[in-house]
Write a structure and sequence with these properties.
The protein has 6 helices and 12 strands. By secondary structure, the chain is an alpha/beta fold. It has a 6-stranded mixed β-sheet with strand order 2-12-11-7-8-9, with helices on one face. Strands 1-10 form a two-stranded parallel ribbon. A two-stranded antiparallel sheet has the order 3-6. The longest helix has 18 residues, at about 55-70. It starts with a helix and ends in an 11-residue tail after the last strand. Residues about 1-20 have low confidence and may be disordered.
Length: about 210
């Protein structure tokens, strides 16, 4: 094998030193210079023009107004109706850990396959009351049957700010229906209460004034 080394080296040197032939194929078609506006410069010029015309201030005011309106009255949670019957069921929040959970030092604190119930460490100390803030009967029922100490009032529709001012109580909002969807709630008013290591959920038919057929 050693006698082939000089031959291989010679071939490599010959290939490296051989001149490379270049052929001019001429020009085919018109050639134009690349002209491209700088994106940031374009945006900046448009912003300057909008500021000069007052359009930028108008856009900012419109955005602020839309944001305030959205915060004061979030979009109604879809798929939620007024309860037409009382319905109860039990919700078990227990989960099975799918993989080992480790602390900051890499030590396993919860092994995969362990069943964990969040209520064992974080009990539900207040009832969760879901209601339609635009339904006067539901608001009146919540006022009469709950207090600020024993329940959190969570709207699926209406303005929490207007109700806080009127009722002098804190109101929350189920943004995007996250909680009602999690608990499987489809009608309000609805109660979520802890019973032992499970949650009892009740969609409640409440008394209404004659002619109120929500």
């Amino acid at each position: 094998m050693r006698r082939f080394v000089p031959i291989i080296a010679s071939l490599l040197l010959t290939g490296l030193s051989a001149p490379t032939a270049a052929k001019d194929y001429g020009q085919h078609g018109a050639v134009f210079p690349v002209i491209e506006d700088d994106l940031l410069a374009t945006i900046q010029s448009k912003l300057i023009a909008m500021q000069a015309s007052g359009a930028l201030d108008r856009a900012n005011r419109q955005l602020a107004a839309r944001t305030e309106a959205h915060v004061r009255r979030p979009p109604r949670v879809t798929g939620i109706a007024a309860a037409t019957e009382t319905r109860r069921w039990t919700y078990d929040p227990t989960i099975t850990v799918e993989k080992d959970l480790r602390d900051g030092q890499g030590r396993v604190v919860v092994h995969a396959g362990t069943r964990v119930n969040p209520l064992d460490t974080v009990p539900l100390r207040q009832k969760l009351v879901f209601l339609d803030g635009d339904d006067a009967a539901q608001v009146a029922w919540a006022r009469a049957h709950t207090t600020a100490l024993d329940a959190k009032l969570i709207l699926v529709a209406g303005s929490p700010f207007d109700l806080m001012k009127a009722e002098q109580r804190r109101f929350y909002f189920d943004q995007s229906g996250t909680l009602t969807r999690h608990f499987g709630i489809h009608a309000v008013p609805a109660l979520v209460e802890q019973t032992g290591r499970t949650l009892r959920i009740t969609e409640l038919l409440i008394p209404r004034a004659k002619g109120d057929q929500r």
